[in-house]
Design a protein that fits this description.
CATH architecture of the largest domain: 3-Layer(aba) Sandwich
CATH class of the largest domain: Alpha Beta
Number of domains: 2
Order of helices and strands: EHEHEHEHEHEHEHHEHHEHEHEHEHEHH
Helix content: 40-55%
CATH superfamily of the largest domain: Glycogen Phosphorylase B
Strand content: 5-15%
Structural class: alpha/beta
Radius of gyration: 20 Å
Largest sheet: 7 strands, parallel
Shape: globular
Oligomer: single chain
Number of strands: 13
Strand order of the largest sheet: 3-2-1-4-5-6-7
Distance between the termini: 29 Å
Number of helices: 16
């Protein structure tokens, strides 16, 4: 049996690593395609090295472009690779343009698609990621869901065949990699911060970076906080800040280059609170039991909000201030934001990758056509 895995962005490298290990353990041959969607070495090469992810068999070098141009270039290049590889399955992750292009290329060639993180919905069609994940789900033959909510979302769209709740491969990755991270020098000391004595913030989604007035407001709010704000900067955010002439050398802000994955795990684990627009960072905050304040009006990870571990503030100052005040009452133990129970239970047992490998082995080939009941 042969699987071709398609990745292109930092979160997908994190998700693919445990699955690649599980595939190898079951004797499943894997060819890895890196589209080059994230091409900055700090967002790409360092992740392959730290995650011990095998080098790509095919690096397409697509790079940055507008959505249509980027997806089109990926579609053409992926199709050529798949014709040569002739895999039994194509494995795609999440909701990027690499996901969409991979699913489309495979489906048009009649190669069945398995979608990891299937069923997630923000219900905001203005987000490019929402379009990507919906299309990928309706093309996939196997829909590998991280949560029960994802299964329900697919059922509401008439998709029931090939649906499996496997848990979250990002939880697998955190459990595996945290041990490695703790063996490295701490990233806290060079930043001059102590455990629970700083906020960690990330901003990279277009809803925040492509609206200068909104970005200015968010940066201004971060600068006024009562403890240092460690702010690893995505290249997109750097460009947006430069274009809008927004200064970062002020107040509580501690801007830094993008953090490596292992450093990011430690920064998340020991933060006083996490302020982000990233879906993956929201979950990692949840895994570590750290309060999360999300700079969006909606989230795909609704369980974190429903359980009281995450709060959505969008760009509203009053909501932001109230969330920060709530963090002030958190002791660093127990359940922040009034949540209860083991935070890991919502996302599986840390063996999602093994479940995915087993399902791929046991599933017969399908046409990849939509499964509408």
């Amino acid at each position: 049996m042969k699987v071709t895995t398609i990745v292109g962005a930092r979160p997908q490298f994190v998700k693919a690593a445990p699955v690649s290990r599980a595939l190898a353990a079951r004797g499943i041959a894997e060819a890895l395609i890196h589209t080059g969607q994230h091409y900055d070495p700090q967002l790409s090469d360092v992740f392959f090295e730290q995650l011990k992810l095998k080098p790509p068999d095919h690096h397409l070098g697509i790079g940055s472009a507008r959505h249509g141009a980027q997806t089109g270039r990926m579609l053409e290049a992926i199709e050529a690779v798949l014709v040569g590889e002739r895999p039994d399955w194509v494995l795609v992750y999440g909701d990027t343009n690499s996901t969409l292009a991979g699913a489309l290329a495979a489906a048009k060639l009649g190669v069945p698609v398995a979608h990891v993180e299937a069923g997630l919905r923000s219900f905001n069609r203005a987000m490019p990621e929402e379009i990507n994940r919906v299309v990928a789900d309706h093309l996939a033959a196997l829909l590998l869901c991280p949560t029960e909510a994802a299964v329900r979302n697919l059922a509401a769209e008439g998709i029931s065949r090939g649906v499996h709740r496997v848990g979250d491969v990002m939880f697998d990755s955190v459990l595996y990699n945290l041990r490695l991270a703790e063996q490295l020098p701490s990233p806290l000391a060079p930043l001059g911060v102590a455990p629970r004595g700083y906020y960690l913030a990330t901003i990279h989604r277009p809803v925040n970076t492509d609206a200068p007035a909104r970005l200015q407001r968010l940066v201004g709010l971060l600068a006024t906080l009562d403890a240092p704000v460690v702010l690893p900067l995505h290249p997109r955010t750097v460009r947006a800040l430069q274009l809008a002439e927004i200064a970062l050398q002020r107040g509580a802000l501690r801007p830094t280059p993008p953090a490596s994955y292992l450093d990011m795990l430690l920064l998340e684990r020991y933060a006083k609170a996490i302020i982000t627009d990233s879906g993956g960072v929201q979950k990692e905050a949840y895994f570590f039991g750290v309060p999360c304040i999300t700079l969006r009006a909606e989230t795909e990870w609704v369980e974190t909000v429903e359980a009281g571990w995450n709060t959505l503030v969008d760009a509203d100052e009053a909501g932001f201030r109230a969330a920060i005040d709530a963090v002030g009452g958190w002791s660093g133990a127990g359940a922040p934001f009034g949540g209860s129970g083991d935070p890991r239970n919502l996302y599986g047992d840390g063996h999602a990758a093994e479940a995915i490998a087993s399902i791929l082995l046991s599933s017969s080939e399908t046409s990849g056509a939509p499964k509408t009941s």
